[in-house]
């Protein structure tokens, strides 16, 4: 394994890899800093580029750059105009915009940048260290254990989704049903194809993701129109001093630990991490009354926590094929298009490439600091760009990327169809993330469960309680574990939404 790691290090140190990562960081920051344009939308539009280049050591690091840049970019409008660019920036609003009102937007943006880079670096190193023992454990999993873990992941994803639990479960079931469309994995018989030959192989992941994440955002942006004039914020105020950064080091590392832990659990994601990091910092502070009024520690806590999630989400993705959130679902699609199938055997079959990608993630943080620091003044002005100029370009990229992925005209139909589903879900306030996870994991769960039944034969009770007692206990405990964890996480999310509403009403 050490030889594979060293080979991955050698493969990661390529000029073209760093150039593409830098481009991804710039595009991610641009997408994140545009109010109303989320990281998921940016990733979905740009993901076809990753496999058109043909080399996974260029395409995947490019998307990782978009991911990292997008999460940080969301803090720009959160700080400047009290509008979170992404869900991950929801807690950054509380003190970030307070610093802007004090005339210190530059200090807030720089604190967000350095806190993000520090937490991202340590969480990426943690991911690189953890991936080996986790992969070794997962290699011992058989179909029953994989089915149990996927079942647990689906329950947690549904319970922790935005909105009522029932809505999350409905969207999860809808996604599982969409995943069943196509050929049966065991018999090869078509299911729910309604005589349509194009559906025999099921829906392709890329047009589905672009349709669900990009088209609803575009539709919402068209409805809202351009932002009213007079919202521009001048980039003024003093720079962040080293002494101020040092005072926040303890907060940054606390939030890094919180975000890293949350990143390992599928379905939780950056918004919950940011809120938990912020609440932990406020509770630990000697002056909690300063929070919400322009406290640098509040910005550091939120930004460190949400960026620390980025690396650890790769652990369940690469070892089990379980995406932690909507963005890693897009990464899963990119891996599959490159011929890399995330799962228990990925490290054995493509260990050098996997380590090269993870090492590139660590080095990307150095680029992140350099590019971010140099371009902060530029992205501080991006919030004033008219949407009427951006929407046509985004539409063109969405449709062109969908068609170029496979050159199949039916993918355009899939894109439009899922776009309409995404728009309807958005209007009805349903979260589409559980549907995406259900679509991806439902197929794998069906296959693993089918293999489990084949192994058990006719005496499945003896198989479950004698040979696979641990797996059976996990399955029985799943609803309880998922529900309790989900209720706790939803409390943090509800507090975040209530706090954001109070801040906006006070302005």
Largest sheet: 2 strands, antiparallel
Order of helices and strands: HHHHHHHHHEEHHHHHHHHHHHHH
Structural class: mainly alpha
| Portion in beta strands | under 5%
Question: How would you sum up the global shape?
Answer: globular
Describe the structure.
This protein has 507 residues and is an all-alpha fold. It has one domain (2-506). The chain has 22 helices and two strands. It has helices at 2-12, 15-33, 39-52, 56-73, 75-81, 92-101, 105-139, 143-159, 165-180, 205-224, 242-247, 249-263, 270-284, 296-308, 314-320, 326-337, 346-382, 387-406, 410-427, 433-456, 460-467, 469-506, and strands at 182-183, 190-191. The protein has a two-stranded antiparallel ribbon with strand order 1-2. α2 (15-33) packs parallel to α4 and α8 (143-159) crosses α9 (165-180). The radius of gyration is 22 Å and the shape is globular. The termini are far apart.
